[in-house]
Amino acid sequence: MSKHIPTYALNNLSDRQDISPDVLLLSDPINQVKEPLIIPHRTNYYGIGICIGGEAKLTANLETYDIIPGCLIAMSPHIIKQWQYKSDDFQSFAILFTKDFLNVTGGTALERFPFFESVARHIFMLTPAHSANLKDSIQLIKGKLEDEHKYRGEVLRSFINGLLYEVSSLYEDYSRSLASVQTRSQLLAADFKKLVNLHVLQERSVSFYANKLYITPGHLTETVREVTGKTPGEWITEAVILEASVLLQNPALTVAQIAYTLHFPDQSAFGKYFKNVKGLSPAAYRRS
Q: pTM of the prediction?
């Protein structure tokens, strides 16, 4: 399905109009981009960075994150992203790269890094020491990116690989500390949202997710509402509409094709579902 979903390439962030880079370092505030990142979108690249100034609010799949200085940011093509807000002084120090660049020799399987998964927590706060270390690592990559020699690509791949393992260690520590302070209800709600990310294109019934978690639909509804303020049905609907909104950006797809992709019985059923939530038909939403 991913081949149908519109994605933005790295040249959306580059000053160069004539190239589509495979690796890019962000160190200055981005005032303009070629595509509107405020709408739901995917990108064709991975990224590791840290917020070094200002603040922002980013929605990644079903979660909305507040980003302030010291936050680690991990992004991948698997995530539907939408920047809800960026302050004028928002600034990140980040390295962005495509899968093809890192895998040119077949040496790195990006799937082994859990922070790139669609169900991961993509933004979390670092300690001052870890934040300084991460900035130092990206600074080293910046120096290698500016070097011009025949083995520049090989050196860059080596340093980016090292950064990924450094972030993997930080992510594992963060995940353990988070799990240790969460209640059973919070853990259950988190597991539910992971399942929604994995199965929502095929399954929209609360009972499906309750069965996966070995609990009753009533227990799931009560727990998720208590923890998140929303029912499981509301989470499921948000995920479906988010995916539909991205698909509707692609003019090559008909509404009927989108309905099929999202496993609706027909275009009419999808149209009623979408209009009930958005107040517009899919065709009207696309025109807007």
A: 0.77
Residue 87: exposure state from Cβ atoms within 10 A (0-12, 13-18, ≥19): middle
Tally Cβ neighbours within 10 Å of residue 203. 17
Going by C-alpha positions, the residue among 56, 134, 50, 47 that lies closest to residue 90 is 56
pLDDT at 32 over 60: no
- pLDDT at position 18 is 43
Task: Identify which has the larger pLDDT, 209 or 61.
Answer: 209
CB 235 within 8 A of CB 192: yes
Range of the domain at 228: 184-287
SS3 236: helix
> Which pLDDT score, from 0 to 100, does residue 19 have?
46
181, 206, 239 — which closes off a domain?
Answer: 181
Q: 98: part of which helix (H) or strand (E)?
A: strand 91-98
Percent of the chain past pLDDT 90, that is, above it, reads 60
Q: Which of 181, 213, 243 is the last residue of a domain?
A: 181
Q: How many folded domains does the chain comprise?
A: 2
Using one digit for the tens of pLDDT, what is the confidence trace for 88-112?
A: 899 999 999 999 888 866 656 787 8
Question: What HEC string does 175-229 produce?
Answer: HHHHHHHCCHHHHHHHHHHHHHHHHCCCCCCHHHHHHHCCCCHHHHHHHHHHHHC
List 156's β-bridge partners, or say none: none
Claim to verify: residue 29 and residue 88 sit in the same structural domain: yes
